[in-house]
TrEMBL record:
<dbReference type="GO" id="GO:0009341">
    <property type="term" value="C:beta-galactosidase complex"/>
</dbReference>
<feature type="binding site">
    <location>
        <position position="161"/>
    </location>
    <ligand>
        <name>Zn(2+)</name>
    </ligand>
</feature>
<dbReference type="GO" id="GO:0046872">
    <property type="term" value="F:metal ion binding"/>
</dbReference>
<dbReference type="InterPro" id="IPR013780">
    <property type="entry name" value="Glyco_hydro_b"/>
</dbReference>
<dbReference type="InterPro" id="IPR013529">
    <property type="entry name" value="Glyco_hydro_42_N"/>
</dbReference>
<dbReference type="Pfam" id="PF02449">
    <property type="entry name" value="Glyco_hydro_42"/>
</dbReference>
<keyword id="KW-0326">Glycosidase</keyword>
<dbReference type="Pfam" id="PF08532">
    <property type="entry name" value="Glyco_hydro_42M"/>
</dbReference>
<feature type="domain" description="Glycoside hydrolase family 42 N-terminal">
    <location>
        <begin position="17"/>
        <end position="389"/>
    </location>
</feature>
<dbReference type="InterPro" id="IPR017853">
    <property type="entry name" value="GH"/>
</dbReference>
<feature type="binding site">
    <location>
        <position position="163"/>
    </location>
    <ligand>
        <name>Zn(2+)</name>
    </ligand>
</feature>
<dbReference type="Pfam" id="PF08533">
    <property type="entry name" value="Glyco_hydro_42C"/>
</dbReference>
<feature type="binding site">
    <location>
        <position position="118"/>
    </location>
    <ligand>
        <name>Zn(2+)</name>
    </ligand>
</feature>
<keyword id="KW-0378">Hydrolase</keyword>
<dbReference type="InterPro" id="IPR013738">
    <property type="entry name" value="Beta_galactosidase_Trimer"/>
</dbReference>
<feature type="binding site">
    <location>
        <position position="152"/>
    </location>
    <ligand>
        <name>substrate</name>
    </ligand>
</feature>
<dbReference type="InterPro" id="IPR029062">
    <property type="entry name" value="Class_I_gatase-like"/>
</dbReference>
Amino acid sequence: MPETIPKGLTRLAFGGDYNPEQWPESVWHEDVRLMREAGVTMVSVGIFSWALLEPSPGEYAFGWLDRLLDLLHAHGIRADLGTPTVAPPAWFYRAQPEALPVAADGTRYEFGSRGAICHSNADYREAAAAITTRLATRYADHPALAMWHVHNEYGVPVSACYCESCAAHFRRWLRATYETVDAVNEAWGTAFWGQRYADFNQINPPRVTPTVGNPAQALDYKRFADATLRENFVAERDILHRLSPGVPVTTNFMTALSQCDSIDYWAWGSEVDLVTNDHYLITDGRRTHVNLAMAADLTRSVAGGAPWLLLEHSTSGINWQPRNPAKAPGQMARNSLAHVARGSEGALFFQWRQSRRGAEKFHSAMLPHGGTDTRVWREVVELGASVDSLSEIRGTRTVADAAVLWDWQSWWAQNLQWRPSEDHDARERADAFYEALYDRHLTVDFAHPEADLSAYPLVVVPALYLMTQAAGRNLTEYVENGGTLVVSYFSGIVDEHDAVHDGAYPGPLRDVLGLTVEEFSPLLPGDRVRIAGPEGSELTGDVWTEFVVPRGADTVWTFADGLAAGRPAITRHRLGEGSAWYVATRLASDGLDAVLGWAADDARIAPRAELPRDVEAVRRTGESGTYLFVINHTSSDAKVPLEAHGTELLTGDRAAGRLAVPAGAVRVVRLDG
Ligand code: GAL
């Protein structure tokens, strides 16, 4: 079989974070024996090992890592080797206390956890480059080396630092971005509240202010903090590329986690050699498999549609939510294979052996505290065999039916203070529209607002508060050329500096939607409005209403009560070859489904009525063939019609007609032809 990235892997990746430094070396031999039993092909090592690799400044202790990599290699296990720069040692902070980051309120974080880093700090950057250089020099040619894993999850736990060196760095960034201080004044609208700056040196990070600070300054600080993290990543990556050519470099993303809202992954996707992602089930009462599918789709989209790799998820419960349920029997395999269906080239976990000490001892692992006589271990071994049987899918790409527009910068801007309603949440709308598309069994790509959309019959814009004129033109052309667009309220309101677009709302979307919005009128908690539509249909909205004036669009549903009574609630504008829908209130799932039903008809997307709710069907296709993944998240057996005969890869059975997928099971059919 040909190799793909990670280097030297001829199967899908299966394994996890391996932190053997927590155990005596005698345990390592048991580890590799059990890894083989479980079908582990790759582990991530050394991510937090700086203090062990460099116990005091300039004194290195690589012996243990040499022995570990040799041992892995001897057992045919590939290594994803970390640069440990997310966890500088205690001695480093004693010498460089200013490398500890500072919060917006001036609190300096302490050593004693992880990720306490000011990424503008020159001493930190120098030390990170030094340890990365040492590792790259020593291990570039190690036969176990499959990939470099830089740092860990940039953006958490500290997304931005507000110290003096960041202030200086921010001023440099502003100079490079705007050239003159007047351009900053203009972009930030500093004429308001007398915030005008006469010189770059007068500008600080947006620290704590008596009342709301300048929103454009806050938005630029997000961009600056993101760019600063990327500078650090790129610096390490370039060292690794130079000293370890041919070995791919990654850093693990967290594309869909609300907790990680500080990284513009559109900008990061092209900086890594392989997009990798971490995903954990958020148990907040919503359907976790839908959030998982969204995370996987978003990650694939950040990778430009190319295969990516799930670098961390959990075998069972995690330990950092208020309540952390175990996974139900079979759920781990469904989770892993759902990521694979949506483009991951394998499935890895945090972590291999469950820790006995430290902050994460109650986090599940592949090898639990209870050892091998446990349900989790048996399921891990079974999953290892399943993943192995899917190796031929490597390099194939997931096929999408529709696109959802997403932009981290718009999300940042939307989340700034003093908006029409704090109940409107851009991420909530993205989740809700995604879920409605999922329930129509449509596979979704996410797209940047300025990306080429011509491949998609249907494009959904859940809430894109910040939108450039270029994005507006992009959507107008998309519809004129035959596309179907669905746009939710409070989209297209401000430009990249959080300045309201000239003229009526929604600036760059007025033409494509054929309407203007005169005023927003958000609802109070608990208030709902009825909206009346075709053939006596009625829906309800909450959180938001507004006063829409059609200017070419047809009104399809009308507000029946509330301040907006009698005005349009849902409109359709036929433009060129396509149509553009607008939704002026927050719809629940039935309302979203109704609108998406109409839009799907406009887009000529046939309903997938034969698939039961919560039975997922996703395709990967490529040179080796077309593969249909069917994932049954329900407690009933399902039968899914196949459009062609094929071979089911997990069981080896021939499949034709209707494919039986037992309750909770996964089936993967290579379709003939
Ligand atoms: C990830 C992190 C891992 C581990 C895991 C626990 O965010 O990268 O090191 O902490 O969470 O869920």
